[in-house]
User: What shape does this take?
Amino acid sequence: MREKGLLATLARLIPYAGNTIPRLMLGVLVGIAAHMFALALPQVLRDLVNGLEQNLNLQFLLGSVGLFLLLGASEAILVLLRRWLVLEPGTQVEARMRNHLYEKLQKLPISFHDQWPSGQLLSRSVQDLGLLRRWISFGFVLLIANIVMIAVGLGILFNTHWMLGTILLVSSLPFWVRGFNYQREYGMASRQSQDQAGDLATNVEESVHGIRVLKAFGRGEQAAGVFSRGAKELRMTELRKARLNSNLWLFIIMLPELSIGLSLLAGVYLISSGELTLGGLVSYFATVMVLRWPIESLGFLLAFTLDAKAAVQRFVEVIDQPIDISEEEQLQSIENPVGRLEFKDVHFRYPDAPDKQRDLIDGVSFKIEPGESVALIGITGSGKSTVTSLATRLYDTTSGSIEIDGVDIRKLSFGELRSTIAMAFEDATLFSASVRDNVLLGRPDASEEEFKQALSIAQAEFVYDLPEGVETIIGEEGMSLSGGQRQRLALARAVAAKPSILVMDDPLSALDVDTEALVENALRKVLAGTTALIVAHRPSTVMLADRVALLQDGKITAIGTHSELLNNSEHYRYVISSFDSEKQVII
Amino acid sequence: MSTFGTLNEDESDLSKEDSKVIRNRSLKLLISLIQPVKKRLYLSFGIGILSQLLRVIGPAIIAYALDTALPAAVNDDQIPLLTAVGGYLLVAVATASMTAFFIRYGARINQDVLLDLRQRMFRHTQKLSVEFHERYTSGRVIARQTSDLDSIRELLDTGGNEMVVSLMFMIFTGGALLILDPQSFLVLMASWIPLYFITRWFIRSARLQYRRSRVASARLIVYFVETMTGIRAVKAFRTEKRNQQKYGDLNEDYRRITKRTIQLFGIFDPSLIFTGSVAMTFVLLFSGSRVIEGELGIGVLTAALLYTRQFFGPIERIAVFYNSYQAASAALEKISGVLEEEPTVPEPEKPAELKKIQGELDFDKVSFNYSNNVPVLPEFSLNIPAGQTIAMVGTTGAGKSTLAKLISRFYDPVLGSVSLDGIDLREISSTDLRRHIVMVTQEAYLFSGSVSDNIALGKPGASAEEVAAAAQAVGAHEFIMQLPDGYDTDVNKRGGRVSAGQRQLISFARAFLADPSVLILDEATSSLDIPSERQVQLGLQTLLKGRTAIIIAHRLSTVAIADRVLVMEHGRIIEDDSPSKLIEGEGKFSKLHKAWRESLV
Assistant: This one.
C-alpha cells in the first residue's frame, strides 16, 4: 500500500466532523482574530513611544492605556470563545470515530479478530482517538491560526521596514529545509511508537487474561521480562522522537533570536539614518516577541500533526478492512421454516493456509431433516468446531454451500440466520450483566416462563441461590462462576433462543456425570422437536442424537445410527470407544 | 468508608479526608518515582534555569541598545552597539543549544520514569493474588495499565521539568523587572492576588472532573474489551445493536465529562490572559506617567512592558502543564491504589530452604471460605503421601477446584495449614513453590507467539528437542506437525486457530515439560476426544511415576490410573479409598461408576 500524503490522510477526519465543521471553522477564525489583537498591541506600543517622544501628555497616555486594556480584554474574550467553540467538534469527532470503530469491529468477521491482537484495537480506540481529539481542538486550530499570525506578523515587519522583514525571513530558511527532513523522519518514528504502544497493550491484556496460567507455572517474572523488553523498545522510539524534536527546536529558538540580534544592528543604523522611528523599532521588537511563541510552537504543532496523521492511519487501517462476510444485496427469506439443514460439498480453508495443505473441511455433505439431531464425531482437530462455525457464518465456506430449508445461508439476512440457528459454545462467554440478560441474549423478549424453562433444561437452577437470584450480575464485573456453571448458562442461552436449529459445540464437557445425565434427560425433550447438530466427545452425548456423522480427514466418512457405526466403522470405534482391546486402560 | 487500595475506586466525590489520603498516596508514589532520577533531574533543572536566565537578559540588552547604544551610535561611537549585538547573538546561540540539550536530556528522564512505572505496575499486578484479579476484573487492570499510564505519559510529554523551568523564568523575569524598575514590579506582584484565586478555583473543580473522567474511561475500556473477547457470542446471538447502544451511551457519557473537563481549562486560560493584560495596562499607566514626568527613559518603559508580557508568557504553559497534571494525578490516584494492594497470598519474609522434595501433602485442620463468609470447605484434615495419584470426584461446586487452589496456593486457607513435605506452603518462596507444584486448569490459555513458545512456558530455555519430547508424550506432536509452520506456528489471538482440545494438549505438554513434584490437573482433559484422552493417560502413567498427583475429572476414566479416590460433596470428603474397594462398595462412587459404565455402551 502506498503511503498517503499528510493532507489526504487527515482528510479522512472530515466525515466525522460533519455538522461541527462550521463551529470548528469559526473557532479557527476566532483564533486568528485573537492573534490579530495580540499583534495589534505592538502597533499601539509604537504609536505610544512615538507619541511620548513628541508630546508628553497625560491625556494621550490614558488613551493608549485604554486601548491597551481594550485589546487585552478582547484577546481574552476571543480565546474564551475559541476554546468554547472547538469543544464540541473535538469531542464529537472522537466519540463518533470511537463508535464507528466499535461498530466496524463488531461487523468484521471472526477471521479478522483471530489475527488482530485486541490490545492493538484497544490502543486505537483509546489512545489514538484521544490524541485526535486534542489535535482537532488545539493542534489544528492553532496550527492554522499561528501560520496566519506569522504571515501577518511578517507583513507588519516588512511594513515597518523591508530590511527588518527580510532579516527575519532569510534567517528562517534553514528551518524550512530542516523541517522537511524532520517531517519524514518524525512521521516514521511516530507511527512506530504508536504501534509499539499497541503491542504493549496486547502484552498487558494477555498477561491479565492468562494470569492463572502464569501463576500456576510461576512465570510472572518471565512475562514481566517480555513486557520490559517491549516497554524498552517503546522508550527507544520515544527517545528518537525527542532527538528529532531537539534538533528542530535548536533552529526554532535560535533563528528568531538571531534575527532580533541582527535587527538590532540594522535598526540602530536605520534610526540614525532617519529611515525608522524609535517607536517603529520598539514595535518591531515587540512584534517579534509576540511572534516568538507562535514560531516556537510550530515545532510542537508539526510533531503533533504528524502524530495525528499516524493515528488516523492506524484508525483507517481497521475501518478500511473489507468485510468479506456480509449480507448479500438480494436477500431471500425462508417461507416455511421447518429447520432442514444441509451441507453441500462444503470446503473450507483459512486464507493463509499453505498451498500444499489440503482443505481443513474437504468436501462435507450431509443433511439433517427437520426435528432430527445429528452428532458430529471426530478426533481433536478434525474440524468439528469449524463445521459449526460455518453453519452460523462465523466463517464463510471456501466453496460449496450450506442451506437451511433449501435457502443458501448466504442469501439470508444475519438477523434471520442467527435467529434460526442458535449456538452453544464450548468456552462459555458470559458478559457482565444479570443472569437473565445473559440467558436471554438471543431473545430479550422471551417470556418469564420460557426463561425459567431454559434454566431448568440446562440444570441451571443454581442461579436462584445466587445473592440476587436471576438479577445477580455475573461475568467479569460480577460473580464468578465455575466452568460447569458457565457452561450450563451458555446452554440455557442457546435453548432460550428457541431456534429451529440448535448447534452445540461439546456443550456438556465441563459437567459432572450426575448433572450431565440430568441435562441430557431434559435436552432430549427439547431435541425431539428441534433440528440439532451436536459436536460430541462422549458416548453419552452421542446418545442424544438420532444419527452420528463421523468427520475424518475433512470429510464425512460415515453417517448412521450409533450402533450402525459401531458395527461398520473401525475409525468410529477408535474415536468413540473407551474400551481398548489391547490395553485395558479403563477399568 | 475505607480508602485503602482500590476499594472506592468508582467514587469521584470524595470526602475531604479521603481525598487527602488518596492525594498523599499518589504524591508518595510520585516521589518514589522521582527518587532514582533525582540527580539527573537537578542537572536538567540547572541547565533549564540557566537557559531561561539567558533568555531574560534579552530585553535588558534591547533596553540598553535603545537607551545607550543608539545615542552613542548617532555620535559615531559604534562600540556599545556592537557589544550589544554581539552579546545578543551569543545569548541566542547559547539559549538555543541549551534548550535543545534540555529537551533531549529531559526526555531521557521522563522515559525512564515512565518505564519504571510501567514495569512496577506490570510486576505488581502479576504479583497480586488471583483473588484480587477476580474481584478487580481484567478490563480494569488493562485500563490502569493503558489509558491511565497514557495520561501520565502525556504529563511527562508536556514536561514536568519544563514547568519548573517556566516558573524559574517567571521568577527571573520578575527579578529583572525589580532591578530595572521596582515600581512596575509592585504592579506585577499585585496581579498575583487574582491569579491565586483563579488557580485555586481551577484546581478544585478540575480534580473532581478528572476523577470522573478516569472512571468513565475505565468503564468504556471494560466494555470494549469484553465485547472483543466475546465476539463469537456477540455475533452468534446478534447482540451487535444492543452493544452499540450501550457502548454509544458510555461513549457519550465519557464525551460529556471530557467536554466539561476541557471547558474548565477553557475558562482558566483566558482568565490568565486577561489578568496579564490588566497587569500590563497598569504597568503602562504607572511607568508612562513617569516618562511624562521625565523620571523614566523610553527604553526602560519598553523593557518593563516586554518583561511584563514575558512574565505572563509561560503562565499559559504552566496552566497547560497543570491541566495535564490534574488528568495525570487522577490516573495516579487509581494506579497508586492498585500498587497499594497487597497480595492476599504474601511471599514469606524468610523463605524455608527446600532440600529434595518428595511431594508429600498434608492438610492440617484446614477450613476455607471466600470473602463472603459462606463456608466452602469446612474444617478437614487430609494426608497425601508422596508419589500417590489421587482422583477427586464430585458434583460441580463440591469444592474440588477450591481444594486444588489451596495446594497451588492461589488462595491460603482461612484456618489451619497446607504443607509440602512438612513445610507450610506459606513459608515457601513462590519460585520454589511453582517449581514443585504445577496446576493445569481447564481453561487452556495460549499466549501470542509460537506453539513452541507456549509449551516452553513450562520450562524457560527448554531446547527444541525437549519441547518436542513433551509434546510427543502427551500426543500433541502429530497435530502440531500438521500446522503450517509446525512448532513455529503462531497461535494468534487466544489460540484462534487451534481447537479447544488442541489447546488442552498444548497446556498439558507445558506441564509435562515443567516436571514438577506435585501435579494438579483440574479438568485438564475435558475437551479431549477419547483417543487423545487415552494417549494423555498413557503419557500420564509414565509422567506420574514418582510424583504426587491430584486429578480432578468428571469422566471417571481417569480413575483408572489413580491409587486413591476422594469423593467430595458440599465441601466435605465423603469417601476415601482405593478405586477397586470403592467400586465394590455401596457408596456414592459405586453408583456413579455404574452409571458411567452404562453410558459407555
Observations:
- The mean pLDDT of chain B is 86.
- The radius of gyration of chain B is 35 Å.
